[in-house]
Every structure is written in C-alpha cells, then in structure tokens.
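Hi! If you just cloned this repository, the fastest way to understand the data is to look at a raw example. We've pasted two of them here, unedited. The first protein comes first, obviously.
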Amino acid sequence: MTNVLMVLSAASHWTLADGTKHPTGVWAEEFLEPYRIFTEAGWTVDLASPQGVAPTFDAVSLSDGGAGSAERAAEFAARIADLQGVLEQPLRLDAVNAADYDVLFYPGGHGPMEDLAVDNDSGQLIVAAVNSNTTLGVLCHAPAALLPATDTATGEWVLKGRRMTGFANSEEQIGGLADKASWLVETRLVELGADYSKAAEPFAPYIVVDGELYTGQNPASSVALAERIVADKS
C-alpha cells in the first residue's frame, strides 16, 4: 500500500507588499485532481496543515473562470462538499513524520506563500523527505514551501542545483499580482540556486522530474504531475 501525505496551506489570505491581505487559500484543482488520482490508484491519502487547520479554498479556483467552465466549477464544489469529513480534520503538520509516507505532495494556490514559505515544520519535513529519497510532489505556488528546507547543521538549502519548475513570473504578471507581491516563486527559487525551467507558453502544462522530486508549473499541470507520480511508483 502506498501512503501519501498531502500538505495543505492553512492560509486564507496572502499579504501583499503594501500590507493588503489578498483573499486566497488552496487552489481547488491542485488538491482535487491529485487526490482523485491517488485514491483511484488505491493509495491511502492523509492530509496535514499548520496547526491542523482546515484549508480554505481560493474562491477564484471555484469560479467559472478559475475552474475553466461553469460545469467544472460545480463539479469541484461538489467534490469539496463530499470531502468535508476529510478536510475538516487534517493532521497537525508538526506531528507528522516523513518516514511514515511514500509520497509527500504539496498543492498550490497563493496560500503556501503566506504560511508554508516560512513554516519550519514543513521545511524540516521536506528536508527529511529529500534526505531519505522520498517522493516529493510540489505544484504551482507550492514550491514556496521548499524555501525553508535548509539543513540545520550547515544552513544550506537542500534542493540547491535540483531541476524544478513552479508558477512563473510571467503567469503572475498575467494574473495581475506580480507587481503587488513582496516576492515571486520563480525569482526566489532561482536566487536559492534551483535549476528552474518553465513551459514555452504561460499556463501550458509543464512538469519536471529530478529523481524523486516532481514539480508542476501551474494548475493545468495538476493531472500530469499526479499521473506521472502514480506511473513511476506503480
């Protein structure tokens, strides 16, 4: 049996450079599609978040435009309603052990830029996963959670030089928030020493696999990323 831990942001807003609190959370597709793919594969999936707080889903991700169509938005909302029993009681992030799982998976949305980007419990969970060669899937804005993954002995970022992707600066610009942000995912990953790449066109599906590190650029990459993990672990 393959055991998966999906680590979700507990944030309901993202603090912009001017102090404005931009409503956000977890991007629905980035949780729902991997969750569906993992459970359909027969895998056991646990959820965890900072302090065990139930996640907030970004309202835009549940709108017609964010989901891609009115039908898709309604489907996502129905699936979230069906999963309320699971979503309401995630594990506390500070109480989970990477060694208990075969796969760690981080969905995005701007939420991780608010909390997981500065969460040492999450950072050390990722360090443990990297050191043990545990499969690590990170999607869209969730590479923000990679930022605090530093070796406590050396202070070095444990993912320096690794090939990865994440939400691109051009995509943030198109979305209208790049100029309002304190920092951007692509920029920060490059600054830390990641070997970052992205799709030729904004919002096109794009994944990068580097050993047991699996990253997806944007919401459109959700299915491809989860399916690749399942294929490689099966």
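Ok, and the second one:
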Amino acid sequence: MRDPQRYEISALGLSGTEYTVEQTGTDKNFRPEYEVRDVTGETIFRCTHEMYEGNDTFPFVDTDGTELFTVEATGNWDIAGDYLLTDGQTGEDLVVLDNDVSLLQDTWRIRDAEDESILATINSRGALYTLARKLLPAGQWIGHSFEIADPEGSSVGTVESGFAVFDRYEVTIRDRSSVPVGPIVAATVVIDAIQEN
C-alpha cells in the first residue's frame, strides 16, 4: 500500500480525523462559497466554485487569502470527468478526482495523478436518498450520506450531512493511515458543488 502522506497538501498539514465542510452562501456572482473547519471550529481553508468558459475551478485559500491548492476540471462541462488537484506551494499534481454518473449512486475515486491507481473512493449510500435528491422539487435539501473506502475497499470513514438549505458535511476518517485526508476533505467541497450544478 502507498503512503497516504505522499498525497497530502504541503501547506495544510492536516493531523485530525474530523472536519466540517460547509457551504456558507454565495458571492456577488452567485457562485457557491465553502469553508472547512477542524474539530475546534477553527477555519482551515475556504473556496469559491468558479467557472470560466464552462471549466470548473476550485481555488482553495487560507484565511489570509493565500492560495493553498487548486482543483480544476480537465475538460469543459466536466460533470462526470476528471478534476486535477495541484499543490499551490510545490506546483505538483497530486491526485485526480473522477466521478461515475449514475442515477442510483454517486461514486467518486481519488487516484494518483500519474499512474491513476486508486487511493480512496467516496460512495453515496442509499439509492432512495440519491433518487430523492435528484428528482424531488426540494430534493437538494435532503442530506447526503457517503462512505469513504481505502484502496482495498474497506470502510475507513464517512461524509454525512443533514437537511439544510446550505449543505454542511461532517467528515470523519476512522483510519487516516490508509487514505489521504486532505484530498478527501477537498473532494467533499468539489462533490457538493458539482452535484448542485
């Protein structure tokens, strides 16, 4: 098994196992804004989902506005495509997030940016909830529930949200020795933003 630390974002240094990812509103251009906090409530980073000429971009910044890393779609209107996470300090492409489009289940994979080996997967739990979120008039307010799995498919954590106008997720990783924590927390922001659009 690969060392998950190899894929951690250099400026973050995340050491915990619980994080809150919250959509805090929208900016003046109606783009969703997100904030990530640790278990003490301290803000770790922020992000605004940006789109330029149909290309999804997620610049993640610290509380001073310094760029930490970016996640960017590798193609236009890439709802079911690849999203590349690049470390803002080293310029290194760390991981790729990719998504399988399905009406019954959302499956996101976190892969090595070079050889595409799977580092973790994030799967939605419950086809009825997934259908309700996609088909009901107020479905976007129904909470999400995801299972985080390591490369061997063993469950190592969860991503949970409740019923709310703005999504708020509790990310819990039970075994941080087998998956890259930073990319999983970043992926939670990307997943919510892509599903909202």
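That's it. A detail worth noticing about the second one: The chain has a mean pLDDT of 85.
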